[in-house]
C-alpha cells in the first residue's frame, strides 16, 4: 500500500475526526505532490463532518469559507483547511456554483474536482483513494480532466488556464480530449476576473517551463484575456529563454513582454491588475534592456544612478540572457566595472553627494528650479569624476555656476 508522510498536525486532525465517527482524508494537491516526491505547500483535509461538527470537535477554528463547507483548524500555530464533502450545484456564471450541497460520499466530492491528478485522497487508515486514474496520469505525466472535459471547463473557466499552468509547473502534456476542450471553451475565459487570470499566468511564468505561455496563444485563449495581451503574441519569440531568468515576478513578466513598447507592456500589466512595483520594474527593464552600456566607468555610474542597485543587477542579468553575442564580452566588463564602482564607494546617488540643497540654501541660494539645476550639474561632475565628491570643490563649482547664470 502507498504510504504518504502526512504532517503530525494533519494526522491528528484526521484521527480526531475518525474518533468522532467521521471519515477524513488529506486531498488534492498535497497528495499529488507527495506522490511526485515534491514538498506540498498546503495540506488540505476533506471530511464527511459538516462545518458545525468540525467546529464542535476542535477548539480553535476560523470560518474561512463556511458557506462552501470550509473551516480552518488551527494547530501549533498552523492553519489546516478542513472542507466537508460536497456536490456543487449549477455553475450559471462559469465561475461559481449557484449552490453547494453537503454529501456523505467521498467519491461525489472527488468527482467535482478539476483534474485527475488533483482528485486523489489519502489517509493512513484507508490508503490512497484514486477513483479517476490520477496515479496513472502522474506516471504518464498527463493533465486530464475528471470525467467530461467540457463539463469541467463549463463549471469554472479558469480551469482552462490552470491546465496549462500545471503542465508548465509539472512538465506534463495535455491529454488530447482536455486540450481540444480548452480550445473549444476558450471564449468562457471572458467570464473570469483579471485578478484570477493574472495569478495563473504569473504562476505559469514562474514555473520551470515559462515558455508554455505560448500554449495560451496556440489554444486560442489570448483574445479572451485582453486585446492587448493577444497582440503581444505577434511579437513573442525565443520563449525558451524566459526560463533562464531568475524566479522573480518582474523578471519573468519582462522576459515575456520584452518586445513590447514600454507603454504597451504597462497597459497589459495594468489590465491584469499586477501590483505597482512589478509594473514599474517591468517597464524599466523593457525600456532599457536593448540599450548597450559602454564599458566605461562614468557611463556605468550614470546608468546606475537612475536605477536601484537591485534593478541595475537585474538589468545586467536580463541582458546576459537576451542580448546578442557581440555585446556579451562588453557586458562582462560592465559587470566587473560596476562591482569596482561599488567597492570604491563612488557616489552614484544624489543623496550621497558631499553637498546638499540645504547647504546651498545656507550659502545664500534660493530654493527653486535654479538650485535644482545646480545640484544636477554638481551630480554630473561627481558621476564623471568621483574624486570631486568633496564639499569644498562642489561649493566652489556651485558658486561658479551661479556666476554664469547671473
Automatic annotation (TrEMBL):
<dbReference type="GO" id="GO:0000049">
    <property type="term" value="F:tRNA binding"/>
</dbReference>
<dbReference type="Pfam" id="PF13735">
    <property type="entry name" value="tRNA_NucTran2_2"/>
</dbReference>
<dbReference type="Pfam" id="PF01743">
    <property type="entry name" value="PolyA_pol"/>
</dbReference>
<dbReference type="GO" id="GO:0046872">
    <property type="term" value="F:metal ion binding"/>
</dbReference>
<keyword id="KW-0808">Transferase</keyword>
<feature type="domain" description="tRNA nucleotidyltransferase/poly(A) polymerase RNA and SrmB- binding">
    <location>
        <begin position="171"/>
        <end position="231"/>
    </location>
</feature>
<dbReference type="GO" id="GO:0000166">
    <property type="term" value="F:nucleotide binding"/>
</dbReference>
<dbReference type="InterPro" id="IPR032828">
    <property type="entry name" value="PolyA_RNA-bd"/>
</dbReference>
<dbReference type="GO" id="GO:0008033">
    <property type="term" value="P:tRNA processing"/>
</dbReference>
<protein>
    <submittedName>
        <fullName>Polynucleotide adenylyltransferase region</fullName>
    </submittedName>
</protein>
<dbReference type="GO" id="GO:0016779">
    <property type="term" value="F:nucleotidyltransferase activity"/>
</dbReference>
<dbReference type="InterPro" id="IPR002646">
    <property type="entry name" value="PolA_pol_head_dom"/>
</dbReference>
<dbReference type="InterPro" id="IPR032810">
    <property type="entry name" value="CCA-adding_enz_C"/>
</dbReference>
<keyword id="KW-0548">Nucleotidyltransferase</keyword>
<keyword id="KW-0819">tRNA processing</keyword>
<keyword id="KW-0460">Magnesium</keyword>
<dbReference type="Pfam" id="PF12627">
    <property type="entry name" value="PolyA_pol_RNAbd"/>
</dbReference>
<dbReference type="InterPro" id="IPR043519">
    <property type="entry name" value="NT_sf"/>
</dbReference>
<feature type="domain" description="CCA-adding enzyme C-terminal">
    <location>
        <begin position="256"/>
        <end position="396"/>
    </location>
</feature>
<feature type="domain" description="Poly A polymerase head">
    <location>
        <begin position="24"/>
        <end position="144"/>
    </location>
</feature>
<comment type="similarity">
    <text>Belongs to the tRNA nucleotidyltransferase/poly(A) polymerase family.</text>
</comment>
<keyword id="KW-0547">Nucleotide-binding</keyword>
<dbReference type="InterPro" id="IPR050264">
    <property type="entry name" value="Bact_CCA-adding_enz_type3_sf"/>
</dbReference>
<keyword id="KW-0479">Metal-binding</keyword>
<keyword id="KW-0694">RNA-binding</keyword>
